[in-house]
Amino acid sequence: MKRVTYESRLRNRRIVAKRARKKAKVNHRSGYVARVKRYILEAPKIFCAYNDKARCELLDFLAKLRNQVRAGGRTLIDFSNTTKMNAGGVILFKAEVDRLIRHFGIKSSIRCKAPKSAKVKQVLQKVGVFDALKFPSNIVPKHSDVVHWNCAHGTMADGEKYEDVLGGYDGTIAQAVHSELYKGITEAMANSVHHAYIGMRKDGLQLKEEANDWWMFSQEREGKLNVVFYDVGIGIPESLPRTRPSLWEVMQRFRFTKKDSEIIKFAAGAGKSRTEKKYRGKGLPQIVSTIHKIKGSNLIVMSNRGALVLNNGEKKSIDYKKSIYGTLIMWEVPLSPNEVK
Amino acid sequence: MTVKISIASDFSRHPAGRVIADGPFSGESFRKKFLEPPIKNDKHITIDLDGTRGYGSSFLEEAFGGLIREGFLPERVKELITFKASDQSLIQEILEYIDDAGK
Known about the structure:
The complex is a heterodimer of chains A (341) and B (103).
Chain A: H1 6-23, E1 25-26, E2 33-34, E3 39-42, E4 46-47, H2 52-70, E5 75-78, E6 84-85, H3 87-104, E7 110-113, H4 118-126, H5 129-132, H6 144-147, E8 150-154, H7 161-166, H8 175-196, E9 214-221, E10 224-231, H9 236-243, H10 245-254, H11 260-268, H12 283-289, E11 298-303, E12 306-311, E13 314-319, E14 327-334
Chain B: E1 2-6, H1 7-11, H2 27-40, E2 44-48, H3 57-69, H4 74-80, E3 81-84, H5 88-102
Parallel strand pairs in B: 1-2, 2-3
Protein name (chain A): ATP-binding protein
Organism (chain A): Mariprofundus erugo
């Protein structure tokens, strides 16, 4: 066999490299070099779970992300145009990404293109989105709105996780407020463990959850502390008929409704109604009752398409067009050490 | 003889959840470890509720209401346990769980 010379080896290498360069697609505007074709998914401008329009855009984006990952394609999330993020919107996104990565593993192959907004960049770094999407970043969150974002994730009713998110607020919020928030949050964890994952989430992926995951974020905004808790379970409107059939029967008999918001409202106020095990079912009513003892506090319980809002003592039901496929609870409490009723 | 229990220092500052499968410091695990053995031996217990981050209803109901479901009589449980708490509504809540479980 003819011996390959050093020069011919170098020539072969040059040919291979030239062919690879030809094959690579270069986006000269962004400088992004895609050797492997990726589906580019534009992230919404605003990540928000409460405003109907922004929420719709975010949920459409999450649905596209799920479909793309299910199809087995490689996805590039482009955050270029994202300018605003609130805790509710980010928690929906982070939970979805974590879930997709856990279920589809390496096949999910989601990557991202950094946002132009420095503040959004810092939020994504702080809540662990860049880590999850393997985006190399050495950003140190410095913005006053971002440094106070805290996050936790768990699969049990683990009270110690409270410290990850709210442990730093000793002295900033009253001890009694801590006590009420702790009650509400640990009940939300217990509800997530007992009720959220008793069936298949109707998001089209047909995935069987192996853990009772929940996520919790906190954010300081305009002198208030927002604490958001989210699980990607089947939601209250789906779990209520299974976990509390007698209550569901009463509801069907007297107040038949198919609106998710009405089901949440009914479940939240039905702590002392007859249940299958009468000592159970106090969780959601207690979550709601936490804010009655904290002056100037608000609460949103959002599940699938519905929401129950308690704002300054007034109850309001909202029905949205799209489902969040899970339950999101948000407490808003004033950042003041004496705000207890 | 009275058994003194401080939930915060003897059990956890973070009690949460109902049954053992729920989490590391659940109502069931507190009941089994700290309440059932002295009550079985007719010992008086003083429980200090202060010092924790708080108490969810599922923890309290399972810890104290659970005693009644385990076969102890509500009157006897209330006789044997003395509560100490700066928030008196907490004691009221526990007594309600004991009474409700006995109905």
